[in-house]
Design brief:
alpha+beta, 5-stranded mixed sheet, 9 helices, 14 strands, binds dinuclear copper ion
Length: 349
């Protein structure tokens, strides 16, 4: 009997190898919905900020030391196994036992101690640099609030609130206050910073200074419930003038378009307004994402789908379909009414 071939395994192995290369080199970029530009592959070694540089360099140091230890130990083990293996005609008695050798014992005590001290000192220096107590001139404050299962971003000095897509200026250091509305989440954009938890009733801090414009992707890195895997976040890093333009637009109230008045009245007369804010209207809920400039975002549902009419219809009809377990209920509107509400949402640029 011939054994069945396993093409799937081969394919999986190839995909995995390809992915590993991408993760290590971070050299590819994927196409992007919403015209925000190419998305970087989220490798922690394809760094684009000072804190990420510090972490990547430190990781390489630790990997290097561990690799050297592995090579020495595995090498000695291989030599021993090959050279001293049992051969025909060997004397089968136990070899002479050696107890206590000052040189050997000193070597395996002192060398690991030096490695631990070195790593300890470098770790302390890096922690101080990552915590960065004094804030440079012109730093930008941003508050990140973790929700099940989406991200809220508040720019307190500018009065801007947005969701899931964080916009930052290139070069200008941003200092984050990290908070949570419900359970513990973790804020992680591998190319820009390390992970930091968002913990209820506590404010954590993190900073980053994105060094080149682009779209960076991140992910909640702490299991926070059924939709933890769909708690994606994207960071759009702009040149300073582009960032100022984005801020100025986000500061404005929602657009008013008379031709979607029916949809707007529907939106304002349903429970939508209990959870969502649309600035300039009566909708001022804070449980769900701020929708004032919904259409300035490329994705909905914290990255589960691209932000277009078809996905908005699907989302409003039954959010659970795109994101099982989501906290937003289906509003049980007629298909025609859903179309009208979505046409209103589509005007919120
Ligand atoms: Cu939020 Cu995992």
């Amino acid at each position: 009997m011939t054994r069945p071939r396993t093409p799937n395994l081969v394919t999986l192995a190839q995909v995995w190898a390809g992915l590993s290369i991408l993760l290590i080199t971070g050299s590819a970029a994927a196409a992007e919905p919403g015209g925000q530009g190419a998305v970087q592959v989220p490798s922690m070694f394809a760094t684009a900020s000072t804190p990420a540089d510090i972490i990547a360099e430190y990781s390489l140091l630790v990997i290097g030391i561990c690799a050297a230890i592995f090579v020495v130990v595995a090498g000695l083990l291989t030599v021993t196994v090959v050279r001293f293996r049992s051969r025909p005609g060997d004397d089968r008695r136990e070899p002479p036992q050696v107890y206590g050798s000052n040189q050997v014992e000193l070597a395996w005590t002192v060398v690991p101690m030096l490695i631990v001290i070195l790593l300890g000192l470098v770790t302390a220096r890096n922690i101080l640099a990552l915590q960065k107590d004094e804030r440079p001139e012109g730093w930008l404050p941003v508050t990140v609030i973790g929700h099940q299962w989406w991200w809220e971003f508040r720019y307190p000095e500018q009065g801007v609130v947005t969701a899931n897509e964080l916009h930052l200026p290139v070069g200008r250091p941003t200092f984050f206050d990290l908070e949570s509305q419900d359970v513990i989440h973790s804020f992680w954009i591998p190319q820009l910073s390390g992970k930091t938890d968002l913990i209820p009733n506590r404010t954590n801090h993190l900073w980053m200074d994105p060094l080149k414009p682009g779209v960076y992707v991140g992910q909640c890195a702490e299991y926070c419930g059924t939709q933890h895997a769909h708690m994606l976040l994207r960071v759009v890093v702009h040149s300073l003038p582009d960032f100022e333009r984005w801020l100025a637009h986000q500061r404005t109230d929602a657009a008013v378009s008379p031709e979607v008045a029916v949809g707007r009245r529907l939106f304002e007369s349903t429970a939508c307004v209990n959870c969502h804010t649309v600035r300039g209207t009566d909708a001022d809920g804070r449980f769900g994402p701020d929708l004032t400039h919904l259409m300035s975002r490329a994705t909905i549902g914290s990255g589960v789908a691209s932000n277009d009419r078809a996905h908005l219809i699907e989302w409003v009809t039954n959010p659970d379909h795109l994101k099982p377990g989501v906290r937003m209920p289906a509003m049980k509107l007629e298909p025609k009414q859903i179309g009208q509400v979505v046409d209103y949402l589509l005007t919120l640029h």
